[in-house]
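Tutorial handout. Part one gives the primary structure; part two gives the three-dimensional structure as C-alpha cells.
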Amino acid sequence: MARRKTATLNDEAQVDMTPMLDIVFILLIFFIVTTSFVKEAGIEVNRPQAAQSTAQPSANIFIALTDSGLIFMENREVDIQRVRANVERMLAESPEAQVMIQADQDTKHGLVVKVMDQVKAAGIDAISVSAEPK
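Part two.
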C-alpha cells in the first residue's frame, strides 16, 4: 500500500526569490546601458546675456572657451587642432550628439568661429552657443 504524505502544521510555504532577483538584475543592467551621461566642459565661464535666448535640449558635448583663449573639453585643455579629433571621438560614442559652446563674453569672436568650424568638420551640424537670459 502506498503511503500518502500529509501536510502538517509545521510545514511552511516558501516563495522562491530567484526569478525576481534575476529580473531586478536584468533591469539594472538595462538602465545602466541605456543611460547617457552628461560630460561638462570642465570650467565656469562668464557667459554673455541675451534677451532672445531660448532653452535648448541638453547637449552631449560641451566646449568651453575662456577669455584668455583657452579651450576646454571634458575637464582638460585642448588646442584648436585637437578639437575636431575629440569631437569625432565623442560622436562615435553617441551618434546623435549635439554641441554646446560655452564662450566667455570676452572671448574673441574669431576663436569661436574656429571652434565652430572644427565641430562642423567633425560632422556635427547641431551647434548651440550658451548665453545667460536677461
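Part three, for discussion. Residues 18-34 form the longest helix (17 residues). The CA atoms of residues 50 and 133 lie 5 Å apart.
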